[in-house]
Amino acid sequence: MPTTRAGRWGWHSRAALVVATVAVVGLHLLAARSAGPTIINDEAGYLGNARWMAGQDPVFAMPVSPYYSWGYSAVVAPLHWITRDPGLRWQLILVVNAVLLASLVPLLHRVGRVVLGAAPRAALVGAVVGALSPGVLGTGGQAVAEDLSLPLVVVTVLTLHAALASRRPWARLAFGPTVALLYASHPRFTPVVALVGLGLVVALVVRLLPRVVAGANLVGLISGVILVRIVDRLLVEARWPDVATLEGGWDELVAQLTTAEGIRALGRSTLGQGWYLAVGTLGMAVVGGWGLVRIASGRRLVRGDGPQPTTAARVTALGTMLMALGVFAASVYFFSRNDTRDDHLIYGRHNESFIPIWVTSGVALLLSEPVRARLARTLVAVGASIAVVCGAVIATLNPVTHGGVYALRPIAALSRVLEGDPDGVFVRGSVVALVGLAAVAGLAVLIRRPTVAVAVLTVWFGWVALSRVEQTDRSADEAYRGWDVPQRLDRLGVERAAIDVRAAPVAVVTYQFGRPEVRFVPYVPGRDRRPDVPFVVGSSTDPDLARAGARLALVDEAMPTPDGVPALGVWVLPGPELDRLDAAGHLLPE
Fold first, then answer.
1. Chain segment 67-115, per-residue pLDDT in tens
2. How far apart are CA 176 and CA 13, in angstroms?
3. How far apart are CA 342 and CA 480, in angstroms?
4. Do 343 and 331 touch, CB atoms closer than 8 A?
5. How many helices (H) and strands (E) does the chain have?
6. Alpha carbon distance, N-terminus to C-terminus of the chain
């Protein structure tokens, strides 16, 4: 571990790092009290992949939906060998999530030390604040890819640095395979694969890396991507009747880049998502990004007598910026094509993959900059640039194009801003960000209390994240309070059932997770022929099922449905099962 002007990495620093990590694990466990999965397609995708990877049948069948990658699923798959009880399995998933997300603390601390050149205290504080940003703290209660991809992004940055500077041969060869793992966690990292592949080829040519190191990493990357694609294909064959490719193909990409409307949509998405990154962190993403640019250009993040950034640190900082820009471009393109809710215009979940690094860098800069005038100039420049972006967003973007519908999950950092009239979302978010950044700057520069400024920032992040945590727990409580359908299905003797995807979308994840022994088959009325099974989960007032002579065996009044939408029902089609249940008195009156 390098020496900094603030001292060496001693036992007390290690103890503080361990205590901070354990505390963040505990915080996640206290916050994540959700009773089960509720995100329809996403959690059905990841949890079902885990069941398949654990070799358990029946498979968790998917309706026509996007494909969900298997990186996170591979991490939680072993839990299926520990228990078949859905409730206990879910609690174990929350524990795994807490450990994964808390691992950001030591990982970000390492980035602060070897890439940013920060002192132990500044690196530790920056790591803790980065690990508590809203997009991280609010994620642990859900079984989604971010639980893995957030720490894996930081691992990727560290393996890049190791490929350049480590003395351990195995560490120098981990970068390519780690990028392949990142790709296995989510397809949003496809541009990262392309950029890293190109970078490794360049490193071979210009000998930035020894040829053996560059070549081995390139082989590891290509081999890993091939393996990812093979497993992807097997999962689709096992679980998906059809994959909805919302990103489109080459023709759609060319049209988006060459038509006037396509270019305008890309411009709107770029502006909106850039605005979210700036305001969702009270400007710390921009401050931290500036810190990485400073390192990449060969200047110290920490002004003073410390050593100049090493070549490894400079290349790592540049590589981090390029990888983040690749993910940003993928997100901008995807949501310029799939703009169906107002939050899609400012979608932040994909770009939040790098926010922990930006926040760590920004906090380290606040705590490490000894020259007050220089820090003031940095914060003023950041504030001015954010003000320009905010003005452009307010002047050009409509916050209620789709009726003011904002889902909290993809824009978690705006949870408090969303509490009000949707017409004012952009104005409120801009005001909060600029006032918050001014408060941080005032405390750090005018009052010379950067530690207090960081404390204020941390409290804000925690308060914002709490809103998302509360919403997650509340929606899960509403979904599972008094929900006894798994036991009732068992009493009815249900072994196979179809799920009407349009009428009962929540059942796709809740029923299959809560009753893993039943083989469920999702179908879309009007597109697919109803599966040849005796039981159907659908609307309790479905006229087509009633006309076909089906009878209701139960009405699921515990599972919440939108206002005006009938409760779910379990229907029995005419046949031996209907006769059996009718004779036993298990059917509801016609």
1. 999 999 999 999 999 999 999 999 999 999 999 999 999 999 999 999 9
2. 31
3. 29
4. no
5. 25, 5
6. 74
φ/ψ bin of 243: left (φ > 0), alpha (ψ from -120 to 50), beta (otherwise): beta
Tokens of 538: 């659908």
Q: Phi and psi dihedrals of 283, rounded to 5?
A: 85, -5
Looking at the DSSP bridge assignments, the partners of residue 572 are: 535, 551
Neighbour count for residue 573 (Cβ, 10 Å): 18
Q: Which residues contact 233 (CB under 8 A, 6 or more apart)?
A: none
Write out the two tokens for 327.
Answer: 């993910």
Q: 3-state DSSP call for residue 158?
A: helix
pLDDT of the residue at 39:
80
- Phi first, then psi, for residue 147 (nearest 5°) are -60, -30
Cβ 79 vs Cβ 92: under 8 Å: yes
**Tokens 């905010």, residue located:** 390
DSSP assignment string, 12-80: HHHHHHHHHHHHHHHHHHHH----S---HHHHHHHHHHHHHHTT-SS-----SB----SHHHHHHTTHH
Task: Name the residue among 187, 141, 186, 142 with its Cα closest to residue 47.
Answer: 142
Q: Within a 10 A sphere around the Cβ of 459, how many other Cβ atoms?
A: 11
Residues in the chain: 590
List beta partners, residue 537. Answer: 499, 570
How many C-beta atoms lie closer than 10 Å to residue 171's C-beta?
15
Over the stretch 174-211, which tens digit does the pLDDT of each residue have? 999 999 999 999 999 999 999 999 999 999 998 888 99
- Averaged pLDDT score across all residues of the chain: 91
CB 346 within 8 A of CB 271: no
Cα separation, 569 vs 547, whole angstroms: 15
pTM assigned to the model? 0.93
Long-range contacts of 397-401 (CB under 8 A, 24+ apart): 397/268, 397/271, 397/272, 397/345, 397/426, 399/342, 399/423, 399/424, 399/425, 399/426, 400/342, 401/339, 401/342, 401/345
From the list 188, 86, 103, 191, the residue with the least C-alpha distance to 143 is: 86
Token output for 160: 């890049």
Q: Which pLDDT does position 505 carry in this prediction? A: 82
| Strand, helix or coil for residue 254 | helix
Is-contact 116 301, C-beta < 8 A? yes
